[in-house]
Amino acid sequence: MHRSIVHIDMDAFYASVEQKDDPNLKNKPIVVGGSPYERGVVCTASYEARKYGIRSAMPTTKAKKLCPELLIIPVRMERYIEISNQIQEIFEQYTDFIEPISLDEAFLDVSGSDSIRIGLEIKTRIKQELNLTASVGISINKFLAKLASGYQKPDGFTVIEQKDIHQFLDLLPVGKLWGVGPKTEKELNRIGIYRVHDLLNYDESTLTSRFGKKGIELLNYARGKDDRPVENKSRRKSLGEECTFVKDTDDLNLLKEQILHQCEAIVEKLKKDNLLIRTLTVKVKYEDFTQLSRTISFTGYTRELKALYEYSEKVLIEKIPRDKKLRLIGIQVSNILYPNEPMQIQLNFDRMF
């Protein structure tokens, strides 16, 4: 059975976060980067700025010359990490097999599930919940999934099915292959290889003698082959469940019922992986899209449904204002204890408030 790999790539991530946080920057050419007076460089350019030929790693002095009305926004790394963590929380609700590549992209292995449904759902949730766009690629391996996500940027959604692999790859510039940078592309061009089909028609022994092991890797990519697994690069730091209501609500019974279901789902995940948690967060989004979260920490570790639900309910009632209707409610647990790690067993709920 072929794997099902989803590659999520946020569109102009840093710049899009700035435009999201400051509506006055919408539809304007902006870059996130250093000052042109201090030899700064562009970290990310909005798509409006890219129309002027502005790209990442370009000196901001050059970017400003290409577009005199360009706005240069200082880097706010803490904010980008915060948003990246929220995106990661969405991923974690669909699979445990997540390989972050950077703050703005990741591979997800969803083999055995409906990858197209999951990809569309994640893309929609990122737009609805974070007001950002992501490009999504889906295929049978990491190379093809990443190729697919970049095919229709921005805000793209591309699926490369098994039957379409060779047709999709055949006429692509060889520079699109994984691991082919400008230097390698020039070397390939020098021997008459410009497109993927040129590579496939080239003598394999000549490629290996010229490029060594990399020659074989390039041939495999040209054939659509990539056996690398999706690798979790770090232990997950949190687990979460949330629900966006079809209709905004202030019905306390409905809210309590929803957090009970969310606590049940979280407890199932904790039991499955033999995990314990110490910190619990209740977060809400109001009808006017403002958000609020309240966090508590137990004095010991637990995964008991009774503890999670009772204190989620207590936070909801005592710490979350309900003067406006809610459009979303969610539970997140963090400070996760993995098996064989030392733990403090006792719980003292009375000290949590």
Automatic annotation (TrEMBL):
The active site annotation covers: E105
Which is a Gene Ontology cellular component entry for this protein? cytosol
Q: Which residues belong to any copy of the UmuC domain?
A: 5-181
Entry note: cofactor = Binds 2 magnesium ions per subunit.
Spell out where the chain crosses the membrane. Answer: none
Q: Which domain of life is it from?
A: Bacteria
Q: Which InterPro entries match?
A: DNA/RNA_pol_sf (IPR043502), DNA_pol_Y-fam_lit_finger_sf (IPR036775), DNA_pol_Y-fam_little_finger (IPR017961), DNA_polymerase-Y (IPR050116), DNApol_IV (IPR022880), PolY_HhH_motif (IPR024728), Rev_trsase/Diguanyl_cyclase (IPR043128), UmuC (IPR001126)
Which intervals of the chain form a coiled coil?
Answer: none
Indicate yes or no for the key word Repeat.
Answer: no
Its recorded reaction(s) are: DNA(n) + a 2'-deoxyribonucleoside 5'-triphosphate = DNA(n+1) + diphosphate
MF terms in GO:
damaged DNA binding; DNA-directed DNA polymerase activity; magnesium ion binding
What cofactor does this one take? Mg(2+)
Q: Where is this site: Substrate discrimination?
A: Y14
Write the record's keywords in alphabetical order, separated by commas: Cytoplasm, DNA damage, DNA repair, DNA replication, DNA-binding, DNA-directed DNA polymerase, Magnesium, Metal-binding, Mutator protein, Nucleotidyltransferase, Transferase
Q: What Gene Ontology biological process does one annotation of this record name? A: error-prone translesion synthesis
Residues the record lists as binding Mg(2+): D9, D104
Main location as per UniProt:
cytoplasm
Task: Quote the subunit structure annotation.
Answer: Monomer.
UniProt record similarity statement: Belongs to the DNA polymerase type-Y family.
Q: What does this protein do?
A: Poorly processive, error-prone DNA polymerase involved in untargeted mutagenesis. Copies undamaged DNA at stalled replication forks, which arise in vivo from mismatched or misaligned primer ends. These misaligned primers can be extended by PolIV. Exhibits no 3'-5' exonuclease (proofreading) activity. May be involved in translesional synthesis, in conjunction with the beta clamp from PolIII.
Protein name as annotated: DNA polymerase IV
Which organism encodes this protein? Geosporobacter subterraneus DSM 17957
**Taxonomic lineage:** Bacteria, Bacillati, Bacillota, Clostridia, Peptostreptococcales
Give the gene that encodes this protein: dinB
